[in-house]
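Internal tracking record. Fields below are filled automatically when a chain is submitted to the structure queue. Please do not edit lines marked as system-generated. If the sequence contains nonstandard residues, flag them in the REMARKS field before resubmitting.
Queue: standard
Priority: normal
Entity type: single polypeptide chain
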Amino acid sequence: MIRAKYIMCKRTAVAKNTAGREVVYKMMASGCPGIPVVDEQSNVIGIVSMCDILKTAKEKGREIEKITAEQIMSRTPITADIETSLDDLAKIMVENNYSVIPIVKGKKLVGIVSAREIIDTYVEPHLFSAFEE
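SYSTEM-GENERATED OUTPUT FOLLOWS
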C-alpha cells in the first residue's frame, strides 16, 4: 500500500505573520496551490490556498503586502499522518474539495501532499511499486 510518506513533498510552510506576497512566492516555489501555516513548534495551525489569497484581496480590497497568512488561513485544516494510504488521501481531498493536505508525524509538519502527487501515483503506479506493502 502506498502511503503519504512515500509521495509527500518536502516540508514547506509559512509562519502566521508571513506577508501575503511572501506566501505567494513560497507557494510558487513549491509548485503547490496551498501552503500550511505553522507555529513556532512546527504544528499546523492553518492552511492558505491561492483561492484564499484571491478572495481576501478582491473581496476585502486589501493589498497583498498588507495581508498576513494568519488573516487569510483556514483555521481548521485537515491533516493526515505519514502512514495515511494513497486512497484515503484521495478520499479526503475529494470529500473536502482540497488540493493540498499537510502531512504530520504526531502534530509536527513533515511534508505536504497535493492532488498532483496523488494523480501522478495513479497514472504511473509502476514508479511507486517498490513502496507497496
